[in-house]
Amino acid sequence: MDKKYRYELVICMMTVLLFFTLTTSFVSAQPEGIGAIGWNGEYWLIGTFDGEVVKYDGEEFTRIGALDERILEVESTEDFWLIDGWHTLVKYDGKALTKIGDYDVGKTSCNPSYCLIYAKLKGEELSEEAAIAKKKEFVQMSEGEKKKFKEELLSMDRLFRYDGKAMIDLSENVEFPIREMR
Fold it and tell me: Is the pTM of this model over 0.70?
């Protein structure tokens, strides 16, 4: 192979490498996507699937912070935002992100004063080993035992009220079967 062709081959390979590097770094720098958008009457709050929390005031975007998980929902009251991460609830008061706790959230809704949250405490879930053992037991259960077992699993769901300060479990006061809501 003569010098001219080797030179052209090297240039071609460098061009491909440069193109690959530029396009790959550009794509990997992009967020996975938007998981939630909410409006509080003053500004937008945006949560991404890669955990970023961003404020948009109509003119500029400001990064607030990040969670270590996807953001699925944002809701606001007059005083704070409720941010539902994959398994974490977080409050944003306009200044800082504050973790409320670990919950597996089903639904949330806020009014100007507080939020209602339908969830289960993260610690109440069965471990994988326990779930496998229960599944083996479940197969051998009678229909009545199966029904009771399902009700026990579903009873882990709770209805909470959060006012920005305290998470109050309302489940004991609920007269309708909240387990049917999911």
Answer: no
